[in-house]
Every structure is written in structure tokens, then in C-alpha cells.
């Protein structure tokens, strides 16, 4: 009998195991593939490695501006694929070693929760846990008319295994995954068309930020069709491509289609008939703020529950579940203030309320923006597309109070969100933050500049 038995060794499951084991609990993880899950093997990590390949390509293309002559860059994607695999494997080995070192037992096989703390493994074993954490993650969604064949129609699972890049691609769905792939492929020379059902790409992202990304995409030759529905596709006779039909009898001929229309929870066949864990209509396991399911002693975390599908949210939920199991004081995850990072070019990073969401909620706000065009470091590195935008509540005397939202788009903003994230979650005010010195010249001082402008006295930002 383990203290904690985890089904699924992705970011949610392995974080629960590591955190639980470091608190002295005996933990086992049932994993059907490799620990690390979607994030490490089929998602965040490999996708970011390919985006870094695109960044290297852009750097070589733009080298002449710095007086460096390099020959026209060409991509051998199989080398990038091999590098990606090396990075993933190194991280996988590191994680496996870490788990072993903490005496976490990793059991290979498909786990099924039977009820009463019992988990069946596909090899026939039945294990028991005082507590069970369900963390079986999610899988890509597909849409009717676009059967995934891994050649012409792909999801992120197949794209991340490509050895050569298609010369033209239609990306269905302009969310985080769609925009990251569109950006990477366009930078590496593919002709990219994004087909998005909603009026803008990156729905949920602040309007000004999404606008900067759209402009940059268009400048780099990406065709964006938003507010369109796709009706199907007709493969060409030679089997080398297809014609994707969308909107009012429009179509685009491409070598490949990437379907990135969201991910669905991996809850099919997860539960036996005696389990009293509730699953909602969309397949998500129902949980409360402590990640408890409807069965006592059973928790669910990560992409399996209907919260933000982000690896770091899985980490946070794992900690909540383990602390609850330990009987410690638990602060639930505040989903309205989690950090979001999208690694397309230009990068996007944000936390808290967008300007539109704050206004829609009837909050009186003050907004300041600092475009990277005026930032020294951005000029130095030659990446001036982007801005930092801070949304704060407006106090009755008209001054800016608590910071409610920080939205960034531009160079390396995924690495710059930290202080914005802290400000929001610390409920800091512009007066408090502007006491702190920002190193100069840095990209990250744009946040300090924007906040200082909110005090009514900016240095470079009015
Ligand atoms: P998503 O929900 O972010 O975006 C899907 C997009 O597809 C939406 O804009 C939606 O309007 C559109 N769509 C849906 N059905 C459509 C149709 N039939 N035709 C055209 N457009 C359609 O999902 P995505 O990008 O697949 O990502 C899955 C999850 O993984 C998300 O929760 C996302 O936040 C997360 N993720 C986060 C990343 C990051 O933060 N860097 C990276 C990758 C994924």
C-alpha cells in the first residue's frame, strides 16, 4: 500500500510524485509511456526546441545588418529533429534519475482506477494507495473531415516528429499551438495559412498583444483568415497535398494540414465501474479547489481537469493535492492570475486581467503601454516589435492602485513576465514597484518604465 499512487507521469503526475516523496510519502507512478508526459515528449519542450531552430535561422538571415556575412541559411530539419530528441532525452534521463533518487516507484503500464484506492495496471497487477492522484493528461482534439493520417493531416503529435518540413501548410486553429507552429514553419521558409474560427487569433490574449503578433505574422508572409469555418479537404490525385475548404467557398492548396483546435482530457477508460469519480460531459474529471474528486482520497490534476492546460498549472495543482493529503494548510490555485507564455515570434507572456476583461467586469482602470521601439536593448538586438502593457485599478482620486494585469509581447518576454506575475499576485501598486531599480539597458526595464508611468511620473514613458 503506497501513501500516494499516481496515474500518469506527466508534469502533473511527476510533480505530485516528486513533491510527495520529498515530504516523506511513499509514492508510485503508473505510466504507459515515458515519464515527462506530453510536455516533455510531445508538447512544450520539443515545440520550443523547434522555435529555437527558427530563431537561429532568423539570426543568420539578419546577420548582415550587423556586418556579418553568412551564406543564405538553409534548414536540414532532420538535424534539428535529432537535436530536439537529444534535448528531450537528456531531460527525460534527468527526470527519471530524480524520481529514482527520491525512491519513487515508476510502474510501466496503463493504469485504471478501480475504486477504493485500487489501481489496475495493464500487466494484470492491482496496486493500492491510501490516496490516488489521477493525472492522465490530454490528447489533441481533431475535427470531422480531417482524419489524422500523420502525413497530410497532422496534430502536434505528428508535427513534432517530422524529419522534413512541408513547403506549405494550413494551420487550423490560431491558438497557442497553432501560432507557435505557424511562426516556426514560416520562419523556416514554409508558406503558412492560419484558419481560425473566432474573429482573432490568440483569443483570450489582450487585444493589443494579439494585434502585434498578427502584424508580425502578416509581415512574415503568414496568411491569417479569422472568423472562418473549415468544411473539409480534398487530397490531390498524386497524394502530395490537399486543398482545404473554408469560409464562403474558399480553399487553399497545401502540402500538409496541422489541426490545432484544442486538447481533450484523456479520461476514456480511466475509471472502473466501482469508482465514484465524477466526469463531466466534456470528459474532464470534476474537482474542488483542493483537487479532490467526488471520491474521498482520490484527486485529479493537470490537463485531466477543466483548468488552464499548462504544465506549470499542473505543477501547482500537484502541490495543492499533496499538501491536502499531508493535512497541511493549502492555498488553492488562483486561476485568474496564472502566468501564460506563448513562444511564437514575437513571444507573448501575460498574467491577470486583459484591458477588455477588466472593463467588461465593470472595473475602473488605468492602462499604460511601453512599446519596445523605445527600449535600448530592443534596439541593440534589433527586435523592436512589441510592447509591455499594464492594467491597474483606478482609485477614487484618479491614481493607479493594484496592478490587475501585465501583458507583454516581444523579444524574450516569456523570460520577463516574472516581476509582472509577482506584482499581480502580491497585489502590489505602481508606487511600491517603482521604488525598485531596474537594470539598464535591459528588455525587462520596460515593465518598470510602464509601472512608473502609472504613478503619473514616467522617465521614458509618458
Ligand atoms: P487553444 O484552445 O489555445 O486554441 C484552439 C483554437 O482553435 C481556438 O482559437 C479556437 O477558436 C480554434 N478552433 C477550434 N475549432 C476550430 C475549427 N473547427 N476551425 C478553426 N478554428 C477552430 O488550443 P491549442 O492551441 O490546440 O492548445 C491546446 C492547449 O494547450 C491550450 O489550452 C493551450 O493554452 C495549451 N498550450 C499552451 C501553450 C503555451 O502556453 N505556450 C503551448 C501549447 C499549448
Main sheet summary: 7 strands, mixed
Total of DSSP H or I helical runs spanning 4+ residues? 13
The helix/strand class is alpha/beta
Q: Can you count the beta strands?
A: 22
- The CATH class assignment of the largest domain is Alpha Beta
Bound molecules: 1,4-dihydronicotinamide adenine dinucleotide
- Helical residue percent? 25-40%
Average pLDDT number: 97
* Percent of residues in beta strands: 15-25%
Which consecutive residue ranges, at least 5 long each, have pLDDT under 50?
A: none
Q: If classified by CATH, what would the architecture of the largest domain be?
A: 3-Layer(bba) Sandwich
| CATH H-level superfamily title of the largest domain | FAD/NAD(P)-binding domain
Distance between the termini: 63 Å
Rg from Cα: 23 Å
Outline = globular
Amino acid at each position: 500500500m503506497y501513501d500516494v499512487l499516481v496515474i500518469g507521469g506527466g508534469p502533473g503526475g511527476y510533480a505530485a510524485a516528486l513533491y510527495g516523496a520529498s515530504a516523506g510519502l511513499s509514492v508510485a507512478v503508473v505510466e504507459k509511456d515515458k515519464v515527462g508526459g506530453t510536455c516533455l515528449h510531445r508538447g512544450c519542450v520539443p515545440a520550443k526546441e523547434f522555435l529555437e531552430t527558427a530563431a537561429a535561422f532568423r539570426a543568420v538571415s539578419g546577420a548582415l545588418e550587423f556586418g556579418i556575412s553568412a551564406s543564405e541559411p538553409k534548414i536540414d530539419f532532420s538535424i534539428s529533429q535529432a537535436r530536439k530528441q537529444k534535448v528531450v532525452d537528456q531531460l527525460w534521463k534527468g527526470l527519471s534519475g530524480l524520481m529514482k533518487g527520491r525512491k519513487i516507484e515508476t510502474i510501466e503500464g496503463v493504469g485504471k482506477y478501480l475504486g477504493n484506492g485500487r489501481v489496475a495496471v495493464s500487466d494484470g497487477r492491482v496496486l493500492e494507495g491510501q490516496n490516488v492522484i489521477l493525472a492522465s493528461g490530454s490528447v489533441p482534439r481533431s475535427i470531422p473531415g480531417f482524419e489524422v493520417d500523420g502525413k497530410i493531416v497532422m496534430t502536434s503529435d505528428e508535427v513534432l516528429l517530422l524529419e522534413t518540413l512541408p513547403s506549405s501548410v494550413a494551420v487550423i486553429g490560431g491558438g497557442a499551438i497553432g501560432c507557435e507552429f505557424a511562426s516556426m514553419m514560416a520562419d523556416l521558409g514554409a508558406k503558412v495559412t492560419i484558419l481560425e474560427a473566432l474573429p482573432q487569433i490568440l483569443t483570450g490574449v489582450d487585444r493589443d498583444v494579439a494585434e502585434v503578433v498578427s502584424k508580425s505574422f502578416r509581415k512574415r508572409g503568414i496568411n491569417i483568415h479569422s472568423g472562418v469555418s473549415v468544411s473539409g479537404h480534398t487530397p490531390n490525385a498524386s497524394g502530395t497535398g490537399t486543398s482545404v475548404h473554408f469560409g464562403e467557398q474558399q480553399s487553399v492548396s497545401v502540402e500538409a494540414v496541422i489541426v490545432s483546435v484544442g486538447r481533450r482530457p484523456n479520461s476514456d477508460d480511466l475509471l472502473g465501474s466501482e469508482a465514484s469519480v465524477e466526469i463531466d460531459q466534456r470528459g474532464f474529471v470534476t474537482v474542488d479547489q483542493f483537487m479532490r474528486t467526488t471520491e474521498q482520497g482520490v484527486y485529479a490534476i493537470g490537463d485531466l481537469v477543466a483548468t488552464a492546460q499548462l504544465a506549470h498549472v499542473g505543477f501547482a495543482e500537484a502541490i495543492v493535492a499533496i499538501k491536502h493529503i499531508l493535512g497541511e494548510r493549502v492555498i488553492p490555485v488562483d486561476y485568474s492570475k496564472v502566468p501564460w507564455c506563448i513562444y511564437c515570434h514575437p513571444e507573448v507572456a501575460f498574467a491577470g486581467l486583459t484591458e477588455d476583461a477588466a472593463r467588461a467586469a465593470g472595473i475602473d482602470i488605468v492602462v499604460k503601454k511601453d512599446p519596445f521601439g523605445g527600449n535600448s536593448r530592443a534596439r541593440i538586438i534589433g527586435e523592436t516589435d512589441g510592447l509591455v502593457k499594464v492594467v491597474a485599478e483606478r482609485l477614487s482620486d484618479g491614481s493607479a492602485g493594484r496592478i490587475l494585469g501585465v501583458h507583454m509581447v516581444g523579444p524574450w518576454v516569456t523570460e520577463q513576465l516574472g516581476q509582472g506575475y509577482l506584482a499581480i499576485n502580491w497585489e502590489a501598486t505602481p508606487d511600491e514597484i517603482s521604488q525598485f531599480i531596474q537594470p539598464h539597458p535591459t528588455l525587462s526595464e520596460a515593465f518598470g518604465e510602464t509601472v512608473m508611468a502609472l504613478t503619473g511620473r514616467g522617465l521614458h514613458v509618458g
